[in-house]
Amino acid sequence: MTTDMMTLVLSINGEDRAVVFPAHHTLLEVLREECGLTGTKHGCELGECGTCTVLVDGVPVLSCLELAAELEGRKIETVEGMQRGNELHPLQAAFADLGAAQCGYCTPGILMAAKALLAHNAKPSVDEIKAALAGNLCRCTGYHKIVQAVEWAAAIARGEGGYAPPREAFFGAAPPEDGAKGARDG
Amino acid sequence: MASRKGTAPAARPKERAPGAAPKPAPSNTPPATRPGAERARNIIGKPFRRVDGRAKATGQTKFADDLVFPRMAFLRLVRSTVPHAKIRRIDLDAARALPGVLGFLTGAEMPEPFGILPVSQDEHVLCPDKVRFVGDPVVAVAALTEDQAIAAALAVIVEYEPLATIASVEEAIATPEPRIHDYGDRGNLHKIVSMEFGDVEAGFAAADHVFEDLVFYEGNTHLPMEQHAAVAVPEDTDRITVYSSTQTPHYLHRALAKVLGLPAARIRVIATPNGGGFGGKSDPFNHEICAAKMALELGRPIKITLTREEVFYCHRGRHPVLMKLRTGFTKSGAMTAQHLQTALDGGAYGSYGVASTYYTGALQTVTYRLPRYRFDSVRAFTNKPPCGPKRGHGTPQPRFAFEVHLDKVAHALGIDPAELRLQNLVPANSVTANWLKVGSIGLGRCIEAVVAGSGWRERRGRLPRGRGLGLACGAYLCGAGLPIYWNHMPQSGVQIQLDRSGCVAVFCGETEIGQGSDSVVAACVAEILGVDLKDIRLCVADTDLTPVDLGSYSSRVTVMAGNAAVQAAERAREIVARGAAEELGVPASRLAFAEGRVFDVEDPARGLLFAAAVAAAESRTGTIGTTGSYIPPRSPGRYRGAGVGPSPAYSFSAAVIEVEVDEETGLCDVVHVWIAHDVGQCINPVLVMGQVEGSVYMGLGEACMEEQAFRRLPRARSNALVHKFPSLLEYKSPTFADMPPVTTYIIEDPDPNGPFGAKEVGQGPLLPIMPAVANAIFDAVGVRIDQVPIGPHMILHALAQQAKGKEARFGPKEFPEFDFGIPLAVRTPDEGGDGTASNQEEAKVRKGIGTMTERKEALKGGS
Question: I need a surface site. Which of A79, B125, B213, B613 has the fewest CB within 10 A?
């Protein structure tokens, strides 16, 4: 088997990189193997799980289905580009503080999808968050902490520094005293 | 904390609301020897950023497939395409000629069998003579690149001579020959268990009513987002390091030593953080051992990463279990006896199966008072991927059966299902009929919380048709009482090293699989030494450097590694306190450790920075290091099989679920989940929340959609048993869009055996979910679905039956006729028993009992 190699300059996280790679390789493979950017994960390499989500020109794409060869001149963003200096992006900080990352494997993909959402919707509703992230599977969290973390980060990004997730997000609900009240407190 | 900038930690709730955090029971009072023990806790019980949170949110956590080494080559396994066959011929010639190919391995090169349980050493790294399921590995090929390894694997030719296949327990019972394995209790039956605690027939005779149910629980799989991966790096002659996404580095270590024929001291296993485990990475796997063997052969690092399809073949997931449950009740709703029969479809290998078999009965007794109990079980070998431990290991199936059964009983007796449970609760600090010692039990408070929260008493049975509420409970282990191989050594160990820098280095064999075990160990140490979590340096899951911890399974880490960490930290604290006491001229008993200082409780201004206190101790005692270890208390059961079920403590959960059923389509929508979990004491409530919500999620998947199902291809097309859904797209699991609102109540009933009173939370909260959904469907439309996952066709079928005035039910119709033999008879504590069986001899000699020891002897004699 001979492999056609290809040389391209890719713009990744605002940095131009000359990359040599097998022409048939996906963006996922090139990011992880040629660029050493292993923050982008894979869960199926078939476009089914969302784990490998990155942004291309601000739009979430499944990097396992994207040919790197076609991305010259496009703006590629990965989880490694989220921090500013040593400071975490509000999404990253919220995910870390709320336990929205448990095993952390789906986290980079979800962070990228959430970042794209917040870029065009500063105050997304819970349903809008769910819709934007529904292509990303997570087996650990049950998704609630992720939704709460995105709401938290959105508030921080809007400059609402006083906002914090409800007490229940950290401690659970206070058990009701008797059955007569609080049929729906969640 | 700089990294929290902008996320407003100050806005977080500082204090627990009244009622949410009960005072610890006196039994949990910290030892009086601990100086300043009465002070408030600084870390335990408060939400903190998990210690690996930053790395995970930045993508910096290194999973196994993220590792790269110079000269690293790639491995690929050639897996069987047929479900049961003799290997007639392997032809490597075409593959060998391909570019980049470095070498091959076949079964002949690794003849030593392995397996997780000592009694089921029935796997080979590569099948030497026959294959037992589609996906069984036959050949391993290494090449310079992954693409080349894939091409070479495709070029390998394997010829098979097909054998008859077995697809179910029923077929296994009916087909003793050909045997899938040449060991096991009988024909193709791997394990047969029968035991009776107390006179069950007398119990039934004393009952006013005897209820019987047949229930089926379909198998499902873990589906961790990370595909299994391993990298083997030869470090020196005959010395090798294996990095792997394993939950059990210690057991992998043992399997590697056995198969490779190397002393364990020359093998180093490092468990990389797992990208999800749920039990699916708890066995030693073919690919891990193959990578090590190939790395040693080629003298270069070898990486293997499984494809998603291969992850489905590794499986070790939930056993499909058919169950028959019979329970005697008095008119007032007290249980007199129960007889549970379970039949497990084990798949092609033993895995944890013997333990799984016992677990389908063991924990039936720890929720409600069951004075007499009989349990029969059979596990069959079938030509499908091996089943093993998935979150709840063997318990969700009988728990589903029991809780659905109880709901029916409550309706038949005219008792509120919540009351029926509350009136039957196992008392705290009691011993069950099958000799399990139950310590703390917060189940009553769990039930009260979800009943009140959901408006159960006012709303159940009164919602419009189509809407309904269901309630169920569960209980789970906080670590298995016994190790997988018999020994008297610690099940968890922690080592602490302190020096003048003030850094606290903590070494522990525990494995972070996302559940937060790193944070638990760090928090226990930081709390006791009064330092910031950032001053803790963790080194975990490295068999060269860290004391043995058996692994992240059976919800054991918080209790076992936590207790070991507490012991090591208390010993370190004592050494530092002695040094600081001399330095300050204050008795050590008056010193407190908090906020990075060691100070006089009577004059807090008088003190030392923690680093200075360590320096004071280091200059007096020399280099400082301490250890801590944990061995669970011995369980009172002394009968054969008593090793499965005991635990230092049990966690308890209760859930109420509201559903909406569409009678046109049969679709069931889960509207809301109320769940309460007795965690003993939170180490970190926000991580407890995550485990509870994650369990609810996984339980809803099992209740509504997840199934590891197979179909048999037509005889003309190989008759193979193939996966219906070996992909993430076809194997349905809940997405963001499927997850309903969840109200979580954390109940804290501290257990004296847990660190700070803590119990498990990783598995227990899954248990009540599936039965609560089924019970809610009954409340909504009056039909019983005695099977999971619950599909719309099942509801439609039951509704059609209901319309015809027939039994409004969907579920299994019969349990196979089967002779379980003479049950092991064990008198209960109430009957004055001593934990032993009264007929050990008789039951032991019953026909068909085989062990691997016998198998080995037989093989020796035959060859």
Answer: B213
